[in-house]
Amino acid sequence: MLEGFMTGLAAALSFKAIAMVVVGCLIGTFIGMLPGLGPMSIIAIMIPFAVSLGDPTTSLIMLAGVYYGAVFGGSTSSILINAPGVPSTVATSFDGYPMARAGKAGKALTIAAISSFAGGTIGAILLTMFAGPLAEFAKTFWSAEYFALMVAGLTAIAAFAGRGQVLKAILMVLVGLMLATVGQGALFNQARFTMGVADLESGVGFVTLIMALFALPEALFLVLNPKKGNQEGDGQDKEIKDLRITKEEARKIAPVIGRQSIVGFLIGVMPGAGATIASFIGYATERNLASPEEREQFGKGSVKGLSAPETANNAASTGSFVPMLTLGIPGSGTTAILLGALIALGVTPGPALIDKNPKIFWGVIISMYLGNVVLLVLNLPLIPYIAKLLTVPRAYLIPFVLFFSLMGAYIGQNNVTELYLMIGLAAVATLLRFADFPLPPIIIGFILGVMLEDNLGRSLRKFRDLDWMYERPVTLGLLIVAVLFVLVPLATDWRARMGRAKQTAQGD
Amino acid sequence: MSPRWFTLDRLIALVILIIALAYINASFNIRMLPFELRQPFKPNTYPLAIGTLTAIIAFLVTIMPPATEEPGNGSKGGDTEGWREFDWLRFAVFFVLMIVYATFLRAGGFIPSTIVFLFLGSLVLGERRVWISLPIIAGLTAGLWYLVTQVLGIYMPAWPSGLAGSFGQSAQIVSAATPLVLGA
Lengths: 508, 184
Fold this sequence. Notes:
Order of helices and strands of chain B: HHHHHHH
Order of helices and strands of chain A: HHHHHHHHHHHHHHHHHHHHHHH
Distance between the termini of chain A: 68 Å
Distance between the termini of chain B: 47 Å
Oligomer: heterodimer
Largest interface: A-B, 69 and 80 residues
């Protein structure tokens, strides 16, 4: 393992890798600040460029840099203009924006940056410690355990879907699984579900699907709703100066950072729960732990209230790399996209990654330390200048986002059918958003679909029947967990619905 | 059932249910080789399983009592609030623009199609200062062409086929389109 670690260290410290971390972080920060573009769209747009780098390690290092850069940029727009580019930085705006309005924008940015840095770095330390052993354990898994693990990973999405969303989330996962079966798979000779369209034989492009689900609807929502994200003018006149924080403030946020980086990391490790949930839990926990007079400050510009979600969301982002790197299971929409990028680069994810590609495994982890430093020492001082770029007029921004989305899909599959498919899927995705269907489960289902069928097939061929589902303890345990992941939230949900139905009936 | 029952999310679930049934039907019709028919794991085993599951869940979503007061109206999305006042016309125009762009990307050449696409897009979004937007877009398109063909290494004809290198022709297309859009 040490040998692999050293290979990764060498890869992460090569000139090209360092340059790509810097490039990734800068691009991520910049695009992440623009309204209407979250990390998922940004990573999707960057995939063709990443693939052109040629080396999977460097590509993934760059994409990871884009990811945490985007999270960092998202908190900047939350603080400066109260327009969180991403759900995971919504909690950041609770106290960050009031601070900026009170003329403490510089201070707020510094606290956010330090918290992000600490959360990300502590997360990376935990990742370094646990990723190896977990991957070693996962190596004992056979196809049966692997199948059960994926089922558990997919159902976990339902468990964290939120009230009234459980069935809808499962339905979206299934739609993703169905989409993944289109075209010619590695398992069978014939292409399936192509409906006679020759261009579909290669399947639905992964970049196409992400663009259609995230980048296009986000840009089109800005077209649809002229009001959304239009507070840009608000941030312009605000002078960002004095980035320093006092000793007193540092003393206040230190314990918050300590707690939230660990809690956030653990939440991030769980499949289905990611940075968004971690940031809200972090905010709520710190609010409850604070003394009554400090609690008064929450929502009005509390340094603790700003530090908590920022630490937690970065630690969780890092934590979500654990299942992705060690098990090959994406815990969030973003890691699903990174996993898809890895597959596009010709690397098979899974427990074997640490042995077969130690360079990628450790290289990415080590590059995270560097990325966090880049964000703190390079991007933070640049923020006042980058923020000026927020003035990019929408009349140019939106057509360019659409252009990059179309080009991304075209580059991925090299045919025009793919573009029509993407435009059609984007219309469907917009409709799904209007009906409150969660979209990230589709991409997670899509990425896991192929591996799920592959492992089910291997298990069935090996054991000829379904006995392996209850004869193998780890498989059985994981499947029971999967069933609970669905049933428990469903039962709670059902009770709430029935209660409401009864109430309305009596009310009439 | 009250008229409320017919909400957008139920309608979508119903459509998914129909798609799932079609998917199951298609699964039965997958052509298999003789040896595959005897395998415990056939090309349609897994599709049948997920298709059936999808149909069941989609059916459940259509019959479930509402979770929120107004499901499907973006009661908590935030994104979809006030959808009645949204600019649906502009939204539709962009879809048409994207389809037209996709259609003409190859035949019309990358540079003219992209300039027209970005230019019309900015025009629809309210940029009326053509003398500013056109040079910016033309310059950026040249940069994008370099990025796509040289950096990313994608084959992409720059000009309409048969007119390779003819700058005058593409300028004509743009200048012909301009008054049309401005007038409208």
